[in-house]
Design brief:
By secondary structure, the protein is mainly beta. It contains 4 helices and 17 strands.
């Protein structure tokens, strides 16, 4: 009897230890703000079109995107472990939604864009070894995004005035910054990479890095082969006290064999080959970022370069370079400030007389952002942010200008 009880106790203890080696946690962010956004577009004739937007408790928030996440870890023994992360947007309105909502449909109705909650952010599973690094499979943040965060003084917030700003589908003044001419952003890369394989290295002598690859290809007997591919890599150095430096590259686009783009196979008609050739593009984005903590002030710097090439013609359709500097400074134990400014240059393949969502010609890019935060606790923060950015046309678009100004007052809670 005693032996049986001893054995049962031993089994129970072993089961408890095994269970302790596996954990799942729930986490999230809730950010609500009052945001006022003004967009002005001026053509070469001096005619200005102004659009005003006002959002109360926008689900995206101004300082951070509201989200709900689940993460798990299991110790497999021998220095190995398995992990997963599932993370979703909460109430995604107007900024990064499914693109079907309109500004008029949002306020004061019961059938507005608030139904767009739970948009996918992270969705990956992986395995890692302390000495060899880890492999992750699924939707993850791009390598360029990880590197850019090193140089972002404003915590990669959702307001204009930084290179990270994503814009909204209804803010036409934002669209001139995007890497491909139709993206509503200053940001030179995609934040998330779908269907990705990512290797994350261990830290060796202060260096760590990752390599990513994603492909979604198909072909039929009656249509052109297409292969949507993305590749990314970064390296980060933290071997000097108070200093962090990161370098990244991101390559994405549709890769189509030249014979198909030329219409020599699969019986493509001239109209088909034209559309295939137009879609055969490649975007290459590079990011170099750093920050240094001086003690009373932490300084930030980031440089980005984006080039879009039509692989059928060899024509570079966009070449954009921009630089950003910023700082964070605590005034008291509860109050802190941050500020940043950027400038850059954009070149397009063709000149036009106006700036619009498919801006051509050459333009100067500039902007800045100011922010203040009051920490009620480690989890709850009140904030105020102001940001502005401009696209000023050159050459035949001289005199044309697009401006985006915005301010927000809000509160963020993490859990």
């Amino acid at each position: 009897m005693k032996k049986s009880l001893f054995a049962l106790a031993a089994v129970g203890a072993f089961a408890g230890a095994a269970q302790a080696q596996s954990s799942v946690s729930v986490y999230g962010v809730m950010d609500g703000s009052y945001t006022a956004n003004t967009n002005k577009s001026t053509n070469t004739a001096g005619v200005t079109t102004t659009t005003n937007q006002r959002n109360t408790v926008n689900g995206d928030g101004a300082l951070a995107t509201s989200r709900l996440g689940f993460r798990g870890n299991e110790d497999l023994g021998g220095g190995m472990s398995a992990q997963f992360v599932l993370e979703y947007d909460l109430i995604n309105i107007g900024n990064g939604g499914n693109g079907t909502e309109t500004a008029a449909a949002q306020p004061g109705t019961s059938t507005n864009a608030r139904s767009e909650g739970f948009g996918a952010r992270y969705s990956w599973i992986g395995i890692s070894d302390k000495g060899m690094g880890g492999l992750r499979i699924g939707r993850q943040e791009a390598s360029a995004h990880s590197a850019y965060g090193v140089g972002a003084a404003g915590f990669q917030n959702n307001m204009p005035g930084t290179l990270y700003f994503a814009g909204t589908s209804s803010n036409t003044a934002d669209t001139a910054f995007g890497p491909n001419g139709s993206s509503a952003s200053v940001r030179p890369y995609d934040v998330f990479l779908n269907q990705a394989l990512t290797y994350v290295s261990p830290t060796i002598s202060g260096f760590s890095g990752q390599v990513q690859y994603s492909e979604n290809a198909y072909d039929t007997n009656t249509a052109a082969q297409t292969g949507a591919k993305q590749f990314g890599a970064n390296i980060t150095f933290t071997g000097v006290k108070n200093l962090t430096v990161a370098l990244a590259t991101q390559i994405s686009g549709v890769v189509i064999p030249a014979t198909i783009a030329a219409g020599t196979v699969n019986g493509l008609t001239p109209s088909n080959t034209a559309s295939v050739a137009a879609a055969n593009t490649k975007t290459v984005s590079n990011v170099l970022a750093a920050n240094y903590n001086f003690g009373p002030v932490q300084a930030f710097a980031v440089g980005t370069q984006t080039k879009v090439t039509n692989q059928s013609t060899g024509l570079v359709t966009r070449d954009q370079t921009a630089y950003e500097l910023g700082f964070r400074a605590p005034l008291t134990k509860t109050v802190s400030l941050f500020a940043s400014g950027f400038m850059g240059d954009k070149k397009m393949a063709t000149n036009v007389s106006t700036l619009n969502s498919t801006t051509s010609g050459r333009a100067d890019l500039s902007g800045y952002q100011l922010g203040a935060m009051y920490n009620f606790s480690k989890r709850t923060t009140a904030y105020a942010i102001y940001g502005t950015q401009d696209v000023k046309g050159k050459e035949v678009a001289n005199g044309a200008k697009i401006t985006n100004d915005a301010y927000a007052i809000g509160m963020r809670h993490t859990f």
